User: Which sequence fits this backbone?
Protein backbone atom coordinates (compact mmCIF):
# COMPACT_ATOMS: atom_id res chain seq x y z
CA UNK A 1 0.00 0.00 0.00
CA UNK A 2 1.40 3.37 -0.95
CA UNK A 3 1.79 6.35 1.35
CA UNK A 4 -0.98 8.25 -0.46
CA UNK A 5 -3.50 5.42 0.15
CA UNK A 6 -2.57 5.24 3.83
CA UNK A 7 -2.87 9.02 4.14
CA UNK A 8 -6.27 8.97 2.42
CA UNK A 9 -7.48 6.14 4.67
CA UNK A 10 -6.31 7.96 7.81
CA UNK A 11 -8.05 11.16 6.69
CA UNK A 12 -11.28 9.28 5.98
CA UNK A 13 -11.16 7.60 9.40
CA UNK A 14 -10.53 10.94 11.11
CA UNK A 15 -13.45 12.45 9.16
CA UNK A 16 -15.76 9.60 10.21
CA UNK A 17 -14.68 9.96 13.83
CA UNK A 18 -15.19 13.74 13.90
CA UNK A 19 -18.49 13.45 12.05
CA UNK A 20 -19.85 10.97 14.58
CA UNK A 21 -19.18 13.20 17.60
CA UNK A 22 -21.82 15.32 19.33
CA UNK A 23 -20.62 18.92 19.38
CA UNK A 24 -21.85 21.54 21.88
CA UNK A 25 -23.94 24.38 20.53
CA UNK A 26 -22.71 27.94 21.08
CA UNK A 27 -24.59 30.13 23.50
CA UNK A 28 -27.48 32.01 21.97
CA UNK A 29 -29.84 34.72 23.08
CA UNK A 30 -33.38 33.64 23.69
CA UNK A 31 -36.50 35.25 22.39
CA UNK A 32 -39.84 36.09 23.91
CA UNK A 33 -42.37 33.29 23.88
CA UNK A 34 -45.33 35.32 22.74
CA UNK A 35 -48.71 33.64 22.55
CA UNK A 36 -50.41 36.76 21.26
CA UNK A 37 -52.85 36.85 24.18
CA UNK A 38 -52.78 37.23 27.94
CA UNK A 39 -51.91 34.07 29.85
CA UNK A 40 -54.95 32.76 31.64
CA UNK A 41 -53.79 29.23 32.43
CA UNK A 42 -52.97 29.83 36.07
CA UNK A 43 -55.72 30.15 38.61
CA UNK A 44 -55.18 30.73 42.31
CA UNK A 45 -51.99 31.54 44.17
CA UNK A 46 -49.85 28.57 43.11
CA UNK A 47 -48.90 26.55 40.06
CA UNK A 48 -47.12 23.24 39.45
CA UNK A 49 -43.70 22.79 37.87
CA UNK A 50 -42.36 19.43 36.71
CA UNK A 51 -39.08 18.25 35.26
CA UNK A 52 -38.96 15.03 33.27
CA UNK A 53 -36.22 13.17 31.39
CA UNK A 54 -38.22 11.66 28.53
CA UNK A 55 -35.30 9.63 27.07
CA UNK A 56 -36.39 10.65 23.55
CA UNK A 57 -39.92 9.38 24.39
CA UNK A 58 -38.75 5.76 24.43
CA UNK A 59 -40.46 3.75 27.17
CA UNK A 60 -39.21 0.67 28.99
CA UNK A 61 -40.91 -1.38 26.28
CA UNK A 62 -38.56 0.18 23.70
CA UNK A 63 -41.33 2.00 21.81
CA UNK A 64 -41.42 5.75 21.20
CA UNK A 65 -44.81 7.17 22.18
CA UNK A 66 -45.12 10.89 22.84
CA UNK A 67 -48.75 10.30 23.80
CA UNK A 68 -47.59 8.61 27.02
CA UNK A 69 -45.46 11.63 27.90
CA UNK A 70 -48.34 14.00 27.13
CA UNK A 71 -50.65 11.99 29.37
CA UNK A 72 -48.18 12.19 32.27
CA UNK A 73 -47.55 15.94 32.11
CA UNK A 74 -50.97 17.23 31.02
CA UNK A 75 -51.94 18.43 34.52
CA UNK A 76 -48.70 20.39 35.12
CA UNK A 77 -48.60 24.12 34.51
CA UNK A 78 -44.89 24.28 33.57
CA UNK A 79 -42.90 21.29 32.32
CA UNK A 80 -39.13 21.18 31.76
CA UNK A 81 -38.04 18.25 29.61
CA UNK A 82 -34.62 16.68 29.11
CA UNK A 83 -33.36 14.37 26.33
CA UNK A 84 -35.85 15.71 23.81
CA UNK A 85 -35.18 14.98 20.14
CA UNK A 86 -34.85 17.95 17.85
CA UNK A 87 -35.25 18.18 14.11
CA UNK A 88 -33.15 16.19 11.65
CA UNK A 89 -33.22 15.17 8.02
CA UNK A 90 -35.89 12.56 8.79
CA UNK A 91 -37.73 14.48 11.55
CA UNK A 92 -39.20 17.84 10.61
CA UNK A 93 -40.63 18.72 14.04
CA UNK A 94 -38.92 18.49 17.40
CA UNK A 95 -40.59 16.49 20.17
CA UNK A 96 -41.18 19.56 22.35
CA UNK A 97 -43.22 21.21 19.60
CA UNK A 98 -45.21 18.03 19.02
CA UNK A 99 -45.96 17.70 22.75
CA UNK A 100 -47.02 21.34 22.83
CA UNK A 101 -49.41 20.71 19.96
CA UNK A 102 -50.83 17.61 21.65
CA UNK A 103 -51.46 19.55 24.87
CA UNK A 104 -52.45 22.83 23.20
CA UNK A 105 -49.58 24.54 25.04
CA UNK A 106 -46.70 26.78 24.13
CA UNK A 107 -43.42 24.87 23.68
CA UNK A 108 -39.81 25.90 23.23
CA UNK A 109 -36.95 23.59 22.17
CA UNK A 110 -33.36 24.59 22.82
CA UNK A 111 -30.64 22.18 21.62
CA UNK A 112 -27.52 21.69 23.70
CA UNK A 113 -25.44 19.86 21.11
CA UNK A 114 -25.25 19.11 17.41
CA UNK A 115 -25.46 15.49 16.39
Assistant:
Amino acid sequence: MSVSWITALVLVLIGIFLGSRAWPVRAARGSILDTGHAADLFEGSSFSVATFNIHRARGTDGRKKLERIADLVKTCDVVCLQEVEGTSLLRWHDQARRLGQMLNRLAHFSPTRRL
User: Anything to note?
Assistant: The chain has a mean pLDDT of 82. The beta strands are 23-24, 49-53, 78-82, 113-114.
